[in-house]
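Researcher: Following up on the earlier apo prediction. This time include the ligand. It's zinc ion, with the SMILES given after the sequence.
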Amino acid sequence: MAEEKKAPAKPAKKVKGYVAHRMCPKCGSGVRLAEHKDRRSCGKCGYFEKK
Ligand SMILES: [Zn+2]
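Model: Understood. Below is the ligand-bound prediction.
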């Protein structure tokens, strides 16, 4: 199988800024809070906090 070497024009995934995810205070470290527009929430225990 011939390997064609053409430069892939796919843009590198840009990481939007750097979001340091907060850990859930209830579940402990390892469980990150999901980032929302105006709040962060834990998908595990339901904890959320306003921004
Ligand atoms: Zn939690």
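Model: DSSP finds no helices and five strands in the chain.
Researcher: Noted. I'll compare it with the apo version next.
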